[in-house]
Amino acid sequence: MYDVKAKPKQESLSLYKKHEKIYSRPIWGRFTALRTIGVVVLLGLYYVMAWVRINGQQAILFDLQNRKFHVLWFTFWPQDFIYMSLLLLAAALTLFFFTALAGRLWCGFACPQTVWTEIFIWMERLVEGHDRKQKKLDQGPHDLHWWSVKTAKHTLWLLFAFWTGLTFVGYFTPIRDLIGRMWTWQWGGWETFWVFFYGLATYGNAGFLREQICFYMCPYARFQSVMFDKDTMIVTYDKKRGEPRGRRRRDERPAWLGDCVDCHKCVQVCPTGIDIRNGLQYQCIGCGSCADACDDVMKKLGYPTGLVRFSSQRIMDEAGHTRIIRPRVLFYGTLLTIVLGLLGYSALFRMPLRLEAIRDRNVLYREGPGGRIENVFTLKVANMDDKPHRFVISVSGLPDAMLGTHEVAVAAGAVETVPVRLSVNGSRMNPGSAPFWWYVQALDNPTLQARRESRFLVPVTQP
């Protein structure tokens, strides 16, 4: 009988999936080789460039205290913020361009999260072994062996993470000086904070969160589909060739089965734990590990490779040809070319000298002896070079002009304010305002020069 007093059974639905560690199986292939090369090159540049010196100066140093930024042979100042804007714009357009062309190449081969996760996984395999040994260790008893292996792994992780944080701060404080002061613990508060903050962030993100960063924190995974179309090259599974799936012996190829042997090796090697056979998923970072694993199985069976490969939906669905040249690719490519051209031209022909001319608004003009008219200006000479210079000041466009100040010395990265009295023969000038040019030129480097247009005021009524 039905019990009217019985309470209905309540079901709970969790909004968040419990995190389960992914034990990715190691694989080797062409895409894995490319990713390994990317890891070595990118991390090599990160850890080595902090030690490279050019002309006695650290090659890359963002000296916030002195407000100057050394990048290879160039020195930039806060006034050069336009270059940073162009660089960020070029980086965004590069991401859009390659995403529209070839999917998530950035995520799979160059993203810092991917790069540092790869090196942490390598260290984990070095200490704990491959995926099966890791899983067996985690599911086994927490005995002395477990504690010794885990301690060794986390010690290695922490040391590498600390070196990562130290290198990061070394791009803002000269790294040789930073390490020299480390042994006597003479770091400043901000230096200490950022070394440990960046190091612990690397330790947590690459050691523990890993694919969770891509799933829940990275916005790129969410809006990538906006830049995709049927011609975008992505990692995809050829259903027409692979279905229906089924296991078989190595020497068999049943006519009623597709080429997929349902070995799940593509899932086992995936760093995000997805099944590429289920179609395009936002969790896929486009690393190509599944393609390497599938090709390895196909070779062993004597089947053609490419069951899982980089291809486009147009080829898979319509058996057509991928259109590389298309409107969105042309749009992103054109914008990227323009921005890179502007950035390269402005950087190569950048003049590390700026001049500003400000009129004295308290006294517009003065009438001096001999019919001369005098205007007072304040010149601001900014020397953005990495060494001091002495500059000569001159004018053009005014007849019989005389200057009260002709030279000024400006230190490297400094701005000198120079009051200048400029007088002309009033009888040779028309009443009103007359345009002219200010010039400053380095005495030791004639190519280092700047000019600024201004106007000279002449009274309407001449004496």
Task: Describe the secondary structure blueprint for this structure.
Blueprint lengths: L29 H19 L4 E2 L2 E2 L1 E4 L4 E4 L2 E3 L4 H22 L2 H6 L1 H17 L2 H9 L4 H27 L4 H8 L6 H21 L1 H7 L2 H4 L10 E4 L1 H4 L22 H4 L20 H13 L6 E4 L1 H6 L8 H22 L4 E7 L6 E2 L4 E12 L5 E8 L5 E2 L3 E4 L4 E11 L6 E11 L6 E10 L5
Antiparallel strand pairs: 1-2, 3-4, 4-5, 6-7, 8-10, 9-10, 10-14, 11-13, 11-15, 12-14, 15-16
Helix pairs in contact: 1-4, 2-15, 4-6, 4-8, 6-7, 6-8
Architecture overview:
The structure is a single chain. The protein has 463 residues and is of the alpha+beta class. Among the domains are: 229-318, no CATH class; 353-458, Sandwich (Immunoglobulin-like). Helices cover 41% and strands 19% of the residues. The chain is built from 15 helices and 16 strands. The protein has helices at residues 30-48, 81-102, 105-110, 112-128, 131-139, 144-170, 175-182, 189-209, 211-217, 220-223, 239-242, 265-268, 289-301, 313-318, 327-348, and strands at residues 53-54, 57-58, 60-63, 68-71, 74-76, 234-237, 308-311, 353-359, 366-367, 372-383, 389-396, 402-403, 407-410, 415-425, 432-442, 449-458. Strands 8, 9, 10, 12 and 14 form a five-stranded antiparallel beta sheet that branches. A four-stranded antiparallel beta sheet has the order 13-11-15-16, with no helix packed on it. A three-stranded antiparallel beta sheet has the order 3-4-5, with no helix packed on it. α1 (30-48) packs across α4 and α4 crosses α8 (189-209).
